[in-house]
Structure formats: structure tokens, C-alpha cells
Amino acid sequence: MTTTATKPGRDLSISGISKTFGTFKAVKDVSIDIKSGEFLTMLGPSGSGKTTLLMMIAGFVQPDRGGIHLGGQPITHLPPEARNFGMVFQGYALFPHLSVFDNVAFPLKVRRRPRAEIEEKVKAALDLVKLTTQSQRLPRQLSGGQQQRVALARALVFTPHLLLLDEPLSALDKKLRAELQEELKRLHRKLGLSFIYVTHDQDEALSMSDRIVVMSDGRLVEQGTPLELYDRPRTAFVADFLGKSNFVRGRVESHVEGGFVFSGGGARFMQQIRDAKPDIGSGVTVALRPEKLSILAPGAESDNRLSGVVREWNYFGSEFRILVDTPSCGPISVALPAWNAGVSPEVGQSLELGWSAGAGMEVQEA
Fold first, then answer.
1. Please, what sign has the CA dihedral across residues 300, 301, 304, 305?
2. Looking at residue 4, what is its pLDDT?
3. How confident is the model over 155-178, as pLDDT tens digits?
4. How large is the C-alpha radius of gyration of the chain?
5. pLDDT classification of 144: cutoffs 50, 70, 90
6. Among 200, 203, 196, which Cα is nearest to 216's?
7. 212-246 residue pLDDT tens
8. What is the maximum span of the chain, computed from C-alpha positions, in angstroms?
9. CA 348 to centroid of chain Cα atoms
């Protein structure tokens, strides 16, 4: 007889999980430990393996190798219904012929809970997502955001061990998506459940997560807090996928106190040491976020300087985004706060860019 998984509030451990479909290796030897109450986001481009990994956690897909443990107990071969995990999909997956109340009540009815308990728990779940007054409506009478709130209430009504969310906001417009991001963060704080969230949206991952796991080609590339991965990525892939980066490449010329000097494209640059000193003569790649560059006034001092010409620019209300062609490093993107940019960009305009030795991040190429 199949038993349910263990009680809520337990850590989830994924060890050496792999999955192949035919000749396609969807997930390759991935290991992640997820703490109880953590908001963990699996981020990556399409085809990176993040949804397949989520489906293995949910029990809908069986791994070829590796194991999954909840609270130290193996659940790798438990069916989905025995794991007691809540699941929210991109497409809502609501029953169109059932009212909001009956959609939310469905998991409890399947579990044959008493009528009074169903009434109480559905009301509490609808209160949680602020849909009490919509309980008798059909899904087609609701907005997309309201339908996703119903899906959330249904996933939470039976007190799951943790909540799995597969790109739940990608079908919504930008404003509504931002509102529901805040709603999900509020629910996470209130409930204290582990949330495992899949997305390809970098801003979503940065704004919502306690920790981000970045995946590419079925592998776990890097993991860390949003601040760690944005400010101190270790790979060029993460530096460019999570946000936007320029890459300055060259060879180490010399060591200086707290840093090193490297040359590339006929120019010389200074970079702070991140971990160990790179060997003199070795190749280096430094990632540089567009917002960490400035446009230098004549005579201004800077650790690093780079001359170029404006190829194109865009105004986004809060900032200018400028693409500058440089003879030494090719196209360089710059993001400047519009209110005090100190420049009105024009195509063909000559500029001198500057950045501090600590602004760049030495990263590993793939």
C-alpha cells in the first residue's frame, strides 16, 4: 500500500538526478538541497531542463538515476498524489464547468474530507488570495490574474508539504505579473512553506527568490542568492543570462596591490582580485554590468577608461540605454539614470567611458 510522504516543514534533497528522453539528455546529474521555508527559483532558458526537474520533484516524471528525499525519507518512486505537494501551472488548469469554490474544494473532495472541513478550508484559502466574493463565479468570468489566484488557492487548500510553481505568471501582462509577484511573496512570508518556482524571467527570479539555481543544457551552472549571482557571478553564462553584461577580455600583464593589470585590444585595464591572483600571461574575462559604467567628463579620473562613439540609444523614462562602439572592446552597453545622466546622447557622439577596478567581475568562460 502506498503511503503519503512525510509531514510539512521538512527539507527537500535532490541527489544526482538525471533524465533522458530517447537520445536527448534533459537533466544531467543535478543535486540541490532546499531548506524548509525557502523560496527557491530554478532559472534558465527554454530547454535547460528546469521544468523536467520540477516534474520529477512532483512525481509526474521518473528519473533515470538519482534520488529525492523529503525530511530524510525517500520519495523518488512515490506517485504524485502520495507526495502531498501543491502544484500551480502556467495555464491555470481550472475546471471550466466548476465554480471558484468547487475548483478550490476539489483536492479536499478527492481526499474525502468532511463537508464542514471543506467549507472552512476553502473559505480560508479564498480569503488568503482575496477572492472570497468571487466564490460562485466560473473561471471564464474571471480575469487571468484572478484565475491564477484560484489555482493558487486550490494548490494550498489541502496544506501541502511544499508548493511547486511552473512559470505561473508568464501568460499575464507586465503590470499584472508584477502585482502577482508581490502576492506570491506575501503568501510565502505568511505561510512559511517551501516554494520551488520555475521561470525564464530574470527579473522575476531576482525580485522573488531567497536562492536561485541557474540551469543550462540540463546542468546546474551556478546557485546562490540573487545578490551573489548578480553582483558576483562566477561564469560568463550567468553574468550574461541573469541581467546584461559587457565582457572585456585580455591577458594579465602584472599584479598590483589588491588587483592586477590586463591588456586587451590595445588598451590596459585594472581589476580587483576576486579570489586568487591570476597568473601573469594568463587570459582573463571580466564581466561589466552596464549600470556600473559612467560617462566621464573631460579631465575626470577613473581606474579604467575607454573611448567610443554612440551607435544607438534608447530612453526608458528612468534611464538611458546607450550602445557605444569602442575600438578596443567592440560594442559596450551603458545604462545611465536619466535624471542626472549629464549627457544628452546622440548617434555618432564621441564619449569616454569609465569604471572602477572593483566594478568588474572576473568570470569563467564556458
1. positive
2. 41
3. 999 999 999 999 988 878 888 888
4. 25
5. confident
6. 200
7. 999 999 999 999 999 999 999 999 999 999 989 99
8. 79
9. 36
CA torsion, ordered 271, 275, 279, 281, to nearest 10 deg: -30
Regarding pTM above 0.85, the answer is yes
Cell of 354: 569609465
Question: Which architecture does CATH list for 12-239?
Answer: 3-Layer(aba) Sandwich (3.40)
Q: Determine how many CB atoms are found less than 10 A away from the CB of residue 339.
A: 8
Distance CA 24, CA 20 (A): 6
Q: Which stretch of 25-39, 85-99, 111-125, 166-180 has the lowest confidence by average pLDDT?
A: 166-180
Q: Are 92 and 133 in contact (CB under 8 A)?
A: no
Class for the domain spanning 244-363: mainly beta
Give strand pairing partners of 310: 324
Instruction: Please tell me the predicted confidence (pLDDT) of residue 169.
Output: 86
Alpha helices in 37-173 (DSSP H): 50-58, 80-83, 100-110, 115-128, 144-156
CA atoms within 13 A on the CB side of 101: 11
Domains of the chain: which residue ranges? 12-239, 244-363
Nearest-5° Cα angle at 86, 84 to 92: 145
